[in-house]
Amino acid sequence: MNLSWKIIMMPLVAGVGFFLYFGVLFVGTRANDRTLTLIQEGFFHGLEMSHDLQIGALGIRHLLTDAMTSGNTDMIPEADLLAARFREDVLACRGVPGHSAARIDSIGRIFDEYYQVARATALVSSAGSGDLDLEFDDALLGQVALMNSRYESLRVRLQASVQETNDALENALSNTRSRMSRLRRLMNLLALVFLVILVLLSIGVRVAIMRPVQRLSKVTQAVAQGDLDQELDYVSDDVLGHLADSFREMQAALIEDIRQREMAESKLIAAQGQIIQSEKMAVLGKLVAGLAHELNTPLGALSSSANVVSRSQKILAAKCNEGDSLEELRQDKRFARALRAMQQGAATVDTASNRISQLVEGLKSFSQLDHAQRQDTDVTESLVTTLKLIEHQVPEGIEVIRELNEVPKVIALPAQLNQLFLVLFRHAMESIGEAGTISIKSGLVDDNIEVVFHDTGHGYSPEQLKALISPGFKAGSETVRMDWGMISAAGIAERHGGVLKAESEPGVGSTFTLSIPLTATA
Question: For the ranges 18-22, 305-309, 338-342, which has the lowest average pLDDT?
């Protein structure tokens, strides 16, 4: 039985139970009403008629007795009327509950016998009532005795009739009480049975609802906590079964959506990595081009000095081979010039070599070729390294102001931080043009390391600034064009758990603030 039928069965069984309960109550009440009507209209009426017969018989006796003692024969017709009414009442008792036909017939028969004797005796007694003789003959006394005997029999029968009616009434009342008691027991039993049925149905419905709901709740909580491998094994054709099917479909769609999102995120991360790498290569290309120009000077000096040293060495070797004494060599002006030229060339070679070494070391530190993984990084030191590599490209009209403070080290990718600083510095130079000021500050603010680049360039309107800080855009004088430098800068900041904020005002300049938490783990 599915859940819908279980739910429908509860009001259905309750309705059937109440119908049967009130049906039995109605039938029992009707039976009791009929019994009460029978008692009221039958037994009480029969008892009333039995008492009327007793009263009627007693009235006839008194009337005939008065007729005998007074000698008034006018009472006899009145007694006849009462006797006729008595006989009618006896006939009326037939069929009345509490009166058996045999007893009614015997009462009628005994009454007739009594009344015949009593009427005859009254007539005889009335005929002799004028005689003053107080002695009665034996015949009259015999009739009187027979009359009294017949009346006693009638009285006994009437009393028995009354008792029989009372007994029948008591039996009827006893039966009614017994029937009412049985009805109450039956009603209580029916109420108990249907209550038990309803309780069992309620438990069944509760179990049928709660178990799948608890399963669904458990799986839902597991899915909400990220455990997508939880399976809902409830299967049914009812409403909860359809809900479980819908949940499984939703779970499958969610798993597929997460898979697609993870694939998209993987592709996005890969694309960002490629963009950062491409931008890094572009930055390095520009940097190498500048370094190549910067290296030309020490390399030219190195080449020229090497030539001078070589020629001076030949002169010195020739003089030494000529066999001149040491004193003669000291007096030889050409030897002295060659020696000084060789010393100056050697000094120039040393200076040029140091300059080249510094440039190479700075490039190596910038690109972090030896440290491609996460490591403890001094943000201020990375900033100084970047500035050293690019300071030779700063136009003469641009002043660079540094306010660099020591900050705690963080776990970072130093090569990427160098790339970010280089992008921001080059952007400041491009914004200024030929003349202006670039202010660079670093320090600790709350629990974040902040590096601020401020320039006095042309600035940007809110729309241009919004486009500028959006991934992949750079604001120009009139249009907005793609610039992967900002994409790499924003991506590097986010990778280190930080944020790159921009503020600008047209004609005043721009401020870019890099904020990296001390707990950064790139």
Answer: 18-22
Q: Cα angle at 407 between 403 and 413, to 5 degrees?
A: 105
pLDDT tens digits for range 103-133: 788 888 888 888 888 888 888 776 655 444 4
Cα angle value 462/467/469 (rounded, 5°): 95
Closest CA to 311 of 271, 341, 267, 352: 341
Beta partners for 411? 376, 521
Burial group, residue 381, by CB count within 10 angstroms (0-12, 13-18, 19+):
middle
Let me know if 170 is exposed, middle or buried by CB neighbors in 10 A (0-12, 13-18, 19+): exposed
Among candidate residues 371, 473, 356, the one with its CA nearest the CA of residue 417: 371
pLDDT tens profile 352-391: 676 676 666 655 555 554 445 678 888 888 888 888 878 7
Query: H-type helices in 333-436, by residue range?
Result: 333-367, 379-390, 414-432
Let me know the angle formed at the C-alpha of 296 by 292 and 298, rounded to the nearest 5 degrees.
Answer: 120
**Helix extents (H) in 322-332:** 326-331
| Burial of 376 (C-beta count, 10 Å sphere; 0-12/13-18/19+) | exposed
**Do 271 and 491 form a contact (C-beta atoms < 8 A)?**
no
Partners of 516 in the β-ladder = 449
Place of tokens 């002799």: 128
Residue 280: the pLDDT is 58
Angle, helix 484-495 to helix 239-321, in steps of 10 degrees: 110
Structural element, H or E, at residue 378: none
Distances from the Cα of 205 to the Cαs of 8, 189, 330, 431, 451, in angstroms?
A: 10, 24, 122, 75, 67
Long-range contacts of 233-241 (CB under 8 A, 24+ apart): 236/2, 236/3, 236/212, 237/2, 238/2, 238/3, 238/4, 239/3, 239/4, 240/3, 240/208, 240/209, 240/212, 240/213, 240/216, 241/2, 241/212
The sign of the CA dihedral 379, 384, 387, 389 is: negative
Percent of the chain with pLDDT over 70: 71
- Residue 437, C-beta contacts closer than 8 angstroms, at least 6 positions apart: 398, 399, 400, 401, 455, 456
Could you tell me which residues come within 8 angstroms of residue 282 by beta carbon, excluding any fewer than 6 positions away? Answer: 484
pTM above 0.70, yes or no: no
Pairing relationship of beta strands 509-517 and 473-475 according to DSSP bridges: unpaired
- Residue 238 backbone phi and psi in degrees, to 5: -90, -170
